[in-house]
Amino acid sequence: MVPVKFGIIGCGMAARFHLMAFKKVPDAKVKFVAAHDINEKAVKRFARAHKLEPHVKLEDMLQSDIDAVLISVPHYLHESITVAAAKAGKHVLCEKPMASTLEGCDEMISATKKAGVKFMIAENHRFLPAHVYMKELIDKDFIGEIFLARTYEGAFDEPENFLNPDIWNFTYEKGGGGVAMDQGVHKFGLLNWFLGEIDLAQCWLGKSYDSPPNKGEDNAMMFVRYKCGAMAEITVSSTSIHPPMNSTELHGTKGSLFEDHSLDEPVRVFSSHPEAEKKGQYYRPSIQHAPFPKYYIISAFHEDAHFAECILNDKEPEFTPEQAKEAVAGVLLCYLSAKNGRPTKMDELKKLAKTEGTKEILKGLPDVTQQNHEKLKWTWA
Length: 381
Ligand SMILES: NC(=O)c1ccc[n+]([C@@H]2O[C@H](COP(=O)([O-])OP(=O)(O)OC[C@H]3O[C@@H](n4cnc5c(N)ncnc54)[C@H](O)[C@@H]3O)[C@@H](O)[C@H]2O)c1
Known about the structure:
single chain; alpha/beta; Dihydrodipicolinate Reductase, domain 2; 2 domains; 13 helices; 15 strands; binds nicotinamide-adenine-dinucleotide
């Protein structure tokens, strides 16, 4: 089956990143061969530009001889398209977040298991070399037991994406919420890998734009306590005005790690471990990296190549569907805590999933999202 033949579903921004990842450095295991989009013009244009077979109908592409699909459509469609692709016997690589509810995640996990196909959520933060390096140092005990973590993403988004109610991004209905669901889910995918299971969370949601009621928060602060005892602060903003920045700090009993995607050398280590390059001094190890937008391409390359390797060698993906579901659970727990107006335990969310269902969480969320736009005067054109 080498190379694994992928069909792309949804020919937007994320799809372009995946294609670009293999343009400069082809990988023998991955080949994008076909594309489908609901927008006929878009798929024809995209297919022509990238030399792919265009499919106006999804069923036609699913019946073709592709081995796998890359799903890069608005969030509310992840579940139904994953189920359809699995039923057609195609391996599924689906963009984040897995789904907007835990019930949706379960449906996707069960459909792909039943069909016996490989399934992975395209969480590029799990494949970014800087993050992989940090995980290696944690596992080698370079920073000891982690007690504190801080992580921030500030990626100024087009105001149109928040202000136009007809654009799917950041809507409750099609996006599953605002920036916490869209960007925060990356942070849970990453921090859960470093710190394990979440115990409880408290969250503040804010709108700095005067966006329509169907749009979620454009800023969020989430405070999380992990079962290991570590405390984490996760802050995400779609309105902070600076070039895209994405950083994570970890502090442990033997040292600290500082990471920032916006730098050429993204990781700074301070460790007392005997194998540290410079014991008891800061150092910046050499790591494959380039600031935005190139780090997307680097991480998508490793991610897609890993998924193809799992298909070819019948291995389970390193980022498991269960871990992807827990990343969604982290966001939903924060939403629930914002609604509760108090720290909320993960057990409470899991109980809700078994009773009323987590789809209930989005209802009433606009009422607890702080409207902080009235006093703000935007001057950036
Ligand atoms: N990993 C990352 O850092 C990253 C970055 C950007 C986007 N994403 C994710 O990628 C996914 C897509 O986001 P995007 O920014 O590319 O969105 P987009 O709006 O740019 O593109 C989505 C595409 O899906 C198409 N589409 C809509 N409904 C469809 C349907 N029923 N069937 C087929 N195609 C349909 C649209 O016509 C559009 O071309 C989302 O899950 C998003 O969160 C991830």
